Amino acid sequence: MKCQHVQEWLGAYWDLPEDDDRRQAVDQHIEQCESCREEFDIWMESLELIRGTAQGNEERVEYVPVSNQVMSRIYADESWRMPVPSKLYAFSYKMRRNLAAVVALCMTLFIFGFVFAIAGVGADKTPKYGLKPVASVSTDLNSISNKTKSLPVATASLKDPYMVTMGPIRSVPDYMIVISLLGFTGTILIMNWLSRTKA
């Protein structure tokens, strides 16, 4: 067997089964040829080195992106830049109870104010008419009739004018609805502000 064939087969030597003819021929040749024996020893050392490094690197090193390291350093130096969901403040039980009571009070005020505004509770039930009597400055009818001439009143019809009835007009602003909405909005804004500043 020629040395050139043996050197070509050395790359596939360890993949061949032990009863393969080529592997047995390589074994016989390296026992007789000194240069091929040295080449075989180099291949053997390389194989052991590769297997040793492969076994040593079984622990996979997790890749940490550079951007995560940069952002964590920025957040450590300037905590106010941190996004709100990642730094939410954990409210104590007492504060949560008090804030829940304030929100419940505001919602109750809103509901009652809304119901009263819809139902018209407290409004004047007497209907208002389209024509109102003229107010007189003086109640003394004799003095008024003596000072003025009686003029004939021109009318187009002898019937009484048609009176249009209108429902009660609410002129009182709904303070409870406005105050409850302001309180509810203020409570939500304060909770948001506390979650940002106390983290």
Automatic annotation (TrEMBL):
What the entry lists under InterPro entries is as follows: Anti_sigma_zinc_sf, Znf_put
Q: Which family does it belong to?
A: Belongs to the zinc-associated anti-sigma factor (ZAS) superfamily. Anti-sigma-W factor family.
Organism superkingdom: Bacteria
* Keywords for this protein: Membrane, Transmembrane, Transmembrane helix
Q: What is the lineage of its organism?
A: Bacteria, Bacillati, Bacillota, Bacilli, Bacillales
Protein's recorded name? Anti-sigma-W factor RsiW
One Pfam family name from the record? zf-HC2
Per the UniProt record, which residue ranges are transmembrane? 99-123, 175-194
